[in-house]
Amino acid sequence: MTIKVSIVIRCYNEEQHIGRLLSGLMQQIEKNFEIIVVDSGSTDATVSIASRYPVKVLSIKPENFSFGSSLNLGCQAARGDFIVIVSAHTYPVYQDWLEKLLEPFSNPQVALVYGKQRGNEITQYSEHQVFAKWFPEFSNFNQNHPFCNNANAAIRRTLWEQIPYNEALTGLEDLDWAKRVMQQGYSIAYSAEAEIIHVHEENSRSIYNRYRREAIAFKTIFPEEQFNFGDFLRLSITNIISDYYHAWQDRVPIENLLSITLFRLMQFWGTYQGFRQHGLVTKQLRQTFYYPRQLSSTKKNQTLNNVACSENRKSIDYNRLTKEVLLDKIH
Q: Distances from the Cα of 284 to the Cαs of 61, 104, 143, 173, 190, in angstroms?
């Protein structure tokens, strides 16, 4: 049988999350797919858990890892016309997630589709705000800038064969790839209906390191970009104020205020330090990455849109999954 979709999952020590993701994939309405797990030397039960499912496991030595190299390894093994890329610490919300992610490819000019991301109950409040900023409630099938995110995305395999991922970057290999295909006349699509939950469990140091390495990659992709100490101060303050405003609107407990301050300081201090290692992105990209959400309530409109989007769609109830059901789906 011809494989329509290859799902590539990069992982390292994801025993807490990968089983939930794979069980969610087993419940998708679209069944014509293969799953390729690229493991970067996990020392926990990640590979053992993944092996309970119908997956192909590939391994890469930790010393050889880069985000681009692990993706290229998975894409090289892919047989599908489309390659779906998901993080091991995500899981789909709806049973038609895969269908919605592939839908914009009906336009032959679409090279990449990325879907909505939201946090869960352990997600820091500021991270919720980042998700809301980066992944709005309404789809855009003809985006005019290269922002995207490989935690929940799909590409055409034929284009990857022409343009593999940059293995030298410290992150943002997705943004780099999107920029290059757009330069060849292709477009990027965003699907708000292709929603996943993205679980981040990071301390302050991890947040700092994530944004630092992404800033290093960012200035490599866009060498004209700059981020100075004034940007650090201005964007830290404006984002903290924005988060406090939305937290007040959402009636978030006051104990979250410290975590908001720490998150934003680590986000922009990491960005500043990354740019210091030697570098203006387009105005749209700068606003997408750094600027806070508007100080206006969008809760009512988002709620109405969410109701419209979820109507007649089957969500995945992970709490009701049983071992027998999973085994039946696997076999």
A: 37, 22, 11, 19, 15
Interatomic CA distance for residues 80 and 7, integer angstroms: 9
* pLDDT tens digits for range 95-147: 999 999 999 999 999 999 999 999 999 999 999 999 999 999 999 999 989 99
CB 139 within 8 A of CB 191: yes
Q: Give the largest Cα separation in the chain, rounded.
A: 58
Neighbours of 227 (CB within 10 A): 24
Same domain, 185 and 225: no
* 189 and 214 fall within a common domain: no
Please report which confidence band the pLDDT of residue 252 belongs to, taking 50, 70 and 90 as the band edges: confident
Q: What is the DSSP letter of 315?
A: B
The C-alpha atoms of residue 265 and residue 239 are separated, in whole angstroms, by: 9
Do 178 and 30 share a structural domain?
A: yes
Query: Does residue 289 have a pLDDT over 70?
Result: no
Is residue 114 located within the same domain as residue 153? Answer: yes
How far is CA 279 from each of CA 62, 82, 183, 275, 276, rounded to the nearest angstrom? 30, 35, 21, 7, 8
Contacts of residue 246, defined as CB under 8 A and 6 or more positions apart, other chains included, come to 129, 293
CA distances from 116 to 23, 139, 166 (A): 19, 9, 24
Amino acid at 242: S
**Does residue 323 share a domain with residue 186?**
yes
| 301 assigned to some structural domain | no
Provide the domain limits for residue 291: 204-296
45: tokens are: 């039960």
